[in-house]
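Document type: protein sequence-to-structure record

Subject area: structural biology

Format: plain text, a pair of labelled lines:
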Amino acid sequence: MSDSGGDRRLWLDLARRLGVVFALVAGIALFAWVADGHYPIQKWLFWRYAGYWAAVLLFVASCTSLGLRLVRLAGLSARLHERVFVAFALGLFAFELSMFVLGLFRLYYWPLFFALPAVFLAAGAKPALRLGRKVFRRAGRLGAGHRSAVTSALLLLFGVLGIGMIYFLILSPHNVQFDARWKHLALAEDYVASHGVRRFDEGWSFSTRPHITSFVYAWGFLLPRSLLFDRVELCAHLELGVFLMTTVVGIPAMVRRLVPRARPGWVWPARFLFPGTFLYDSSLSVGADHVGAAFGPAIFLVLLRVVDSLGPRACVALGALLSAAALTKESIAMMLIPTPVAVVAVAAALALWRMRRASPEARLRWLTGPAAATAACLVFTAPLWLKNLIWHHDPFYPVGFRYFQGQPWTSDAAYLYQYGYVEHQFARPVAGLAGVLETLKTLATFSFVNNDYPQFHGKLPVFGSLFTLLLLCLPFLKGTRRIWLLVVWVHLGLFAWYWVHHQDRYLQGLVPLMTAVVAAVVVLVWRTTRLVGKGLTAALLAFQVIWGGDVYFIRTHAMAGSAVIKSLDLLEAGYKKQYTERLVFEGDMVALRKALPKSARLLLHENHAHLGVGVPSLTDWLTYQFGISYGTLAGPPEVHALLSSMKVTHIAWQPERSRGWDSLAGDLTFFDFVLNATGERRLVGGHFLVPLREAPPPPRPRSTVLVAACKSPKSGLYELADLTAPSFGPERGRYPAPRTALGPPAQLAELAARAEMLVLEPACAPGFSAQVAGFTLAAKRGAPTGTGNPRPELWVRLRR
């Protein structure tokens, strides 16, 4: 009887459980049916973002997995945080190099998206599994022994809030910064469209500069069956993945080296004590600065190992990390590389001095490590210098033009590089003693003044000042030798930054190092002071947080205005049932892509932002390329020959617009060519698009230009070659006298009949109609900022 009653209870218990399961399944099904009627489940953005996160986890895991194998090969045994982060940084660089090498073999096809991470995971499977078990065991002990659960919870909440705020910004691809749209992402897209790494025949300078981060983004662009929206968002998530590893793992690893037994969970939120992190364009916006910043903590951690023994294997690992910084970006290189190199040199010199009485063989052993590091740097940076040497005959193209015969190189390229790029583009102090003194002063004041474009946030300083302020405490604390090393490193980086090009966004490469100093000083102050000291420290931190609390909401985005609002609009679009419209990004460029054949090679005239065009492309923007200068060409046949040699098939330009960076002769030559010597013109995505004809246009005499201007050049008839004065530098505006001067206003129509082109300032030609005289408006000429160039209209006579 008892057995029967027990069986009955078991069956009843099983029935209740099945009933609960059935009820939950029914509830989910009902909920899904109701929800799908309002917002189709397959249209949820959740699925897209879950896919991005899956790819990011795959990327981070694969980099760390291979990196763990490299850490073992380098003999870098270390604590958990340190080992994981150095492994990730080495794996990240290996991933970038692998993508570059695979690109040389033209292997950029969608299977590579899965194959490369799979190879990396397999290569480091054993050490990764051992590490995973150790992390799992430690995770079970988290929080044990902590006396201040409230403090831990508050710091964790602050850090998680900072991550959440940044993540909300990157939900929309419209958060992508301007430079990423025409450099980092555009280059990645071009490589994928070309199925590999290629030479840019026009000499586009960004393709010859350090840009290895673009190979990470190129992997993101291999995402199969995806829209431009997806590929850009995946790249944004990849940048976030690197940022999170640097913040949550790298910074605590540094601080534990600076302050023994510092709690990792207490220090990483200090990264968000720099409010500029939340503001365009210092925030995460798919650039290279935050990726390059990952190598700073790794270099510091490996450097500490190297100076102890100067072992060859550790030195090679350091050389690899220094090379990674060098290949990421010039600003990253100049801030992160000189100090570690100097430290290794001093360590080697001291070691040799201590062994001055030893045998030559023993002394030579101490030089093996630095020599191995030097050789590693030479080999690992070959994707920059050797590629440039082979493709452009100048390892530092275009910078090395004074010492190498770089190609391509127009007759006016040296002048344009000096005055249109170096002198015009860079924010730097004056040369000489005054500039040195100004830069030294900036070491203390850089965070108290605005070092950014004034149109963004005016004179408001937003970078964050805790690094500078907390240095006042450092002389009164003990055990700070390594902190002082980091402080010197940061200030040497600051000097280089201000001396070369001081924009706040470039400092992001130093922020992890600054954060480690801030966190270390706060921990030491907290340990060594009583209630008053702790209270004042908390007040200083709170002051910084409150002061920067509104930075997140300042509308400074160059294209989006407010990335916050763009993310809100994206999320609201589902409610509005704008399922397709919300996924449109860079619609004009995508329209061009749809209008072009897959085999096209597009020349974009004076247009930086070419992300989304989806085919290999070239730019003719002067001072950013040195192979195309229309003003130096004799006429349409020469233009056709040059573009044909670069395999251009189509040309696109914005209607009736000239940026004014080229000379008048250059502008007129281009518009005369596209209006008279190309195929049928059509308007696509806000651009005129024309195919390049296979046959060159017939030669004709040099064109005559009528100028009707208020000031310069003087009004009259010119040959086109007379109007080659550049838009920059000391030769700007230096035109010869007209071949036929313009007399009374009535003579304007008479001279116009003799001209093929017209430079017209309407205010100085009253009553004259260029259109009636037989001309077509080609462009209204702009002026580069700060040049004060005139802004005339350019008219061309059609010969079709």
Observations:
- The two ends are 107 Å apart (CA to CA).
- The mean pLDDT is 92.
- The CA atoms of residues 26 and 61 lie 37 Å apart.
